[in-house]
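Exercise 7.
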Amino acid sequence: MRSAPLALVFALLIPATAGAHQKSVSYSKWTLVDGGAVVQVRVRVLELTSLPSTRDAADRSSIALYLQSKLSLETDAERCEPLAESTQWLPADEGWLRLEWQVRCDADATRLRSELFASLSNHVHLSTVLGGEPVDLVLSSTSPSAEIGEGAQGTDGRGIIDYLRLGIEHIVSGWDHVAFLLLLVVVARRVREVALLVTGFTVGHSVTLAAASLGVVVPNARAVEATIAASILVVALENAGMERVKGGALVLLGALALFAASATFGGLPAFWGIALFTACYFALLRLIPQAGRLRWAVACLFGFVHGLGFSGVLLEQELPRGQLLQALFGFNVGVELGQLAIVALVWPLLRWLRNRERGDKLIDATSFAGAALGTFALVVRAFG
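Solution. The predicted structure, written as tokens, is:
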């Protein structure tokens, strides 16, 4: 089977499904005082235990040493000295650690530097500096330091670029968004069809990304993640073809998985909704010959759910209210640029493969792989 290698490639992506939206992020708050500053840092236990030097979460002294060595306040001449005797652990949410200590500076501090989790290319450190004009900073592996004195830009200049980059990184590294998008366009034969599908998806996720980030709606993260997985399964099943025997069998298995999830999580209306939607949509495909033209609407509807998933990245960063609009703008533009780049690069290749001999096998392979990935992710996110 020529489609087997492609299906195998998709299958190798399965282990990454459970944490598709778990952005690597840490936080700090610095309060400048005469002769130094007081800092509070908040980090995830899971990320700390992934590092050799802090693998043991119970070894608090090693963790404190790591945090104090990788996060620093600097003057024009030198690094401010952390005062070990001031170190104290503070209460924190489950899965997080929160540490406070003081630093001593021989001159006015002018720069903040973060080298936390430098081995994680997608890690972002969010810092707030108080004690004068408040400054909010976004630090990453590509921008590890920022000024905090006169001329500090905070999130106004470089920050919006960081959020744009964050949006691009999220869509590119979020396998589930990419899989859904590619399954949508793999059956499209004309540029107009691709544009309509991408526009529907964009409109949907932009609306809910804004609504959730601004606090208009409060999404249930577990339901959102599971429904995103279900969206991949639904589109893969549609691509398989309801009118074909093997496609019908695949649809039956997918419907059973969806109804099993909805029955188990009866308290979450999203599961009932996705199961009912799937049954009605597939019935419509059978009854109306041109029902496939409604695919853009399906892209928009599932875009609503994917937008709630996107919003988790911004909500997780606990941005001050005054910065939400620019962060939202930069992040959303980044997401759009990322998805357009993916489609522009991949769809011509998919179209070329489909036009070759036995090109129909491409649909079979992607449908099988999409159904497998979607089902696995649905089970992991709903039951795990």
